[in-house]
Amino acid sequence: MKLEGGQEAAERGERRAAEPQTFADALEQGQARFKDIVDSIDQMIWSTRPDGFHDFYNARWYEFTGVPLGSTDGEGWSDMFHPEDQERAWAVWGRCLETGEPYHIEYRLRHRSGEYRWVLGRAQPVRDQAGQIIRWYGTCTDIHDLKSAEESLRRTSALLQLIGDSTPDMIYAKDRRSRVLYINSAGQRVIGRGVEEIVGRSDAEFVDDPAQAEAILAHDRQVVESGETLDVDEVFTGPDGETRYYRSVKSPLRDADGRIIGLVGLTSDMTERRKAAERERLLAREVDHRARNLLAIVQSVIQLTREDDAKALKQALTGRIHSLARAHTLLADARWDGADFRQLLAEELEPFTARDPRRITVQGPNIELRSEAAQALALVLHELTTNSAKYGSLSAVDGRLEVSWRLVSDAAGDPIFCLNWVESGGPPVSPPKRRGFGSTVLRTSVERQLRGKVLVDWDPGGLRCELAIPVAELGH
């Protein structure tokens, strides 16, 4: 027992020897311990008096800044800030000293390399029992790399947003439940809602037509469940009530581990292209119809043409087919919207008016002809012109031709197109001994095809022909 008691006394003596003997020793030992602690922390630490006078920095401050010890005491610290940040930092620090609120600010601090790096400055006041501030303790944290990463991310995000909002196509991302994560401006315009009304919701919540919404969601599920890209047609009726057609390409959205967390999509408005394709299809059908009709007319011309020899037959067929070709060209130039009767007549009479325009008088209002009527009248005018060139006034040097037309009303008040073809100054004419192609064309084209009437007067002084055709049969 004595051995144990003596050992205990010895230990108490050793502890008393290790303990400071005076207050000054204790204070010095505490300050050394405090310095060891703050210098070992991987953080810049500083302290000020109640009035904000900086009187302490730890080793990390000097290590970071590279300035001599004590050079930043007092107000020297502000010179370490970037010139653009000094005024702001002083304003924030002054307000904290005045109000006692915690200090919190981001600024650029000069590194020992000469580079300015972003740091986060924080400080809290220490108060006595009466609530008076007796000291400020603060830290500076190097956040430059984080700040640079944030800025890079901000620029990247801004660039992606700019790219997304610059395309007329809809670009979007959705989670596995088809809730929108991102949508560009084009998508917002099509849906007719702002981004705050779209993000976090699925199509079922902002597409008015349930069937359209379900079709879109079914395509989304197919992508998420299969993990494959889907290229599909979709239909959407916008807030204006117009239904438009879209082509959507949707691909799975994967995380860093390759797991499918949603989908990304690009949707293009195909309405106009679809309409153009439909117009082309209808045009192809129309061209086919017109080609068949033209071939039928050509076949009739061939079958009805009668001449005594091959050369005359060839000339007759060539002239009639050329007449149809001229009418066809006029219609094609007008995109088959119709042809002007005056131009149709001018094309037929051009060989004669070119030689002596005084021999031919043409007068009448503008009359727009639909394609079928233009083809029919082209043959009629050709036959009248050909007959005049062979046997009538256009075959003589002094022969004259007057062509006039006007619009009149029948007994029911419906408008009628009346054409007068009057020849004079040519050789004496007489009725043909047999009914030829010209007469057949007049009767077939005017009476059967255009539901009109034909009156031919074989006056010896010159042929007179009058056509009366309902305007409804000529126009659109």
Structure overview:
This protein has 476 residues and is of the alpha+beta class. The chain has three domains: 15-143, PAS domain (Beta-Lactamase, 2-Layer Sandwich), CATH 3.30.450.20; 167-269, PAS domain (Beta-Lactamase, 2-Layer Sandwich), CATH 3.30.450; 277-473, Histidine kinase-like ATPase, C-terminal domain (Heat Shock Protein 90). The protein has helices at 2-18, 23-40, 59-65, 83-99, 144-166, 185-191, 195-198, 203-206, 210-226, 271-304, 310-333, 341-355, 371-391, 437-449; strands at residues 44-48, 54-57, 103-110, 116-127, 133-142, 170-175, 180-183, 230-237, 243-254, 260-269, 339-340, 360-363, 368-369, 400-409, 415-424, 453-459, 462-470. The chain has a five-stranded antiparallel β-sheet, with helices on both faces. The chain is rod-shaped, with a radius of gyration of 50 Å. The N and C termini lie far apart (133 Å).
List the helices and strands and how they pair.
Elements: H1 2-18, H2 23-40, E1 44-48, E2 54-57, H3 59-65, H4 83-99, E3 103-110, E4 116-127, E5 133-142, H5 144-166, E6 170-175, E7 180-183, H6 185-191, H7 195-198, H8 203-206, H9 210-226, E8 230-237, E9 243-254, E10 260-269, H10 271-304, H11 310-333, E11 339-340, H12 341-355, E12 360-363, E13 368-369, H13 371-391, E14 400-409, E15 415-424, H14 437-449, E16 453-459, E17 462-470
Parallel strand pairs: 12-14
Antiparallel strand pairs: 1-2, 1-5, 3-4, 4-5, 6-7, 6-10, 8-9, 9-10, 11-13, 14-15, 15-17, 16-17
Helix pairs in contact: 10-11, 11-12, 11-13, 12-13, 13-14
**Helicity, as a percent range:** 40-55%
Strand order in the largest sheet: 2-1-5-4-3
Average pLDDT score: 83
What amount of the residues lies in strands? Answer: 25-35%
Class of the largest domain in CATH?
Alpha Beta
CATH superfamily of the largest domain: Histidine kinase-like ATPase, C-terminal domain
Largest sheet: 5 strands, antiparallel
Structural class: alpha+beta
CATH architecture of the largest domain: 2-Layer Sandwich
Based on Cα principal axes, name the global outline.
Answer: rod-shaped
Give the uncertain stretches in residue-range form: none
CATH topology of the largest domain: Heat Shock Protein 90
- Gap from first CA to last CA: 133 Å
Radius of gyration: 50 Å
Number of domains: 3
Number of helices: 14
Q: Count all strands and give the number.
A: 17
